[in-house]
Every structure is written in structure tokens, then in C-alpha cells.
TrEMBL record:
Listed InterPro entries: EamA_dom, EmrE-like, Small_drug/metabolite_transptr
One GO MF term attached to the UniProt entry: transmembrane transporter activity
Keyword Lipoprotein: no
Domain of life where this protein originates: Bacteria
Primary localization class, coarse: membrane
EamA domain span: 18-113
Subcellular location: Cell membrane
Transmembrane segments: 43-63, 70-90, 96-113
One cellular-component annotation, GO: plasma membrane
Name this protein carries in UniProt: EamA domain-containing protein
GO biological process: lipid A biosynthetic process; lipopolysaccharide biosynthetic process
Keywords on record: Cell inner membrane, Cell membrane, Lipid A biosynthesis, Lipid biosynthesis, Lipid metabolism, Lipopolysaccharide biosynthesis, Membrane, Transmembrane, Transmembrane helix
């Protein structure tokens, strides 16, 4: 994997994570609305869809250049980032199992690229 491909994979992982965080903000916003129509007109929803859409276009590009078995661990890394940001931004409490899972994700990614 070239440096450019590595950077693109990282951008994709971070973009997918950002999309998840934005959707969580939108979900919290939904608690303050009276209807799903209000949520459907939320700029945050459209922004999160745009981030996801661009991430998927980037992912398709990556898959034309990088074997799936090498690219996919970055998606797993993005899932780990969601845990971290859920804790940092939303104050979500992580269980011991979640911490162990994060470590396994990290170790697995390191093993794939070692």
C-alpha cells in the first residue's frame, strides 16, 4: 500500500467516524423535536449524509487500488474511533468489554500491517 493509499484509507475512516458523530448529534436533536419532519429538514442530517456519501465515493476509489483485506482494517479502526469519541464528546461510559474490544481492534490492525 502506497503512502497516498494509506492516507486515503485514514481519511475514509475518519470521515465515516465523523458521519456517525454527526448522526448522534442529530439523534440528540431529535429528542427536542415534535415530529420526524423537523428532523428531515435538519441541516445536520443533510451534512452527515453528505459526509457519508463522500466517504463512500472515496471508499469505492480505494477499493479500485487496494485489496479489500488491507483496506478493511481501516473501517474497523474507524469503529474504534467511534467508541473513543462517544466517550470524549458525549460522555458515554465504556464498559470493560468495550475497552478490551478496542484493544483487540488495535492489536488486530497492527498485526495485519506488521
Amino acid at each position: 500500500m502506497s503512502r497516498l493509499e494509506l492516507v486515503l484509507c485514514l481519511i475514509c475512516a475518519v470521515s465515516i467516524t465523523a458521519g456517525q458523530i454527526m448522526l448522534k448529534f442529530a439523534a440528540k436533536e431529535m429528542l427536542n423535536t415534535r415530529s420526524y419532519l423537523d428532523l428531515a429538514t435538519s441541516p445536520l442530517i443533510y451534512a452527515s449524509f453528505a459526509v457519508y456519501g463522500l466517504a463512500m465515493v472515496l471508499w469505492l476509489y480505494i477499493l479500485t487500488r487496494v485489496p479489500l483485506s488491507l483496506a478493511y482494517p481501516f473501517v474497523i479502526m474507524g469503529s474504534g474511533l467511534v467508541f473513543v469519541f462517544a466517550f470524549l464528546i458525549f460522555g458515554e461510559v465504556l464498559t470493560n468489554r468495550q475497552y478490551i474490544g478496542l484493544v483487540i481492534m488495535l492489536v488486530g490492525t497492527i498485526v495485519v500491517y506488521a
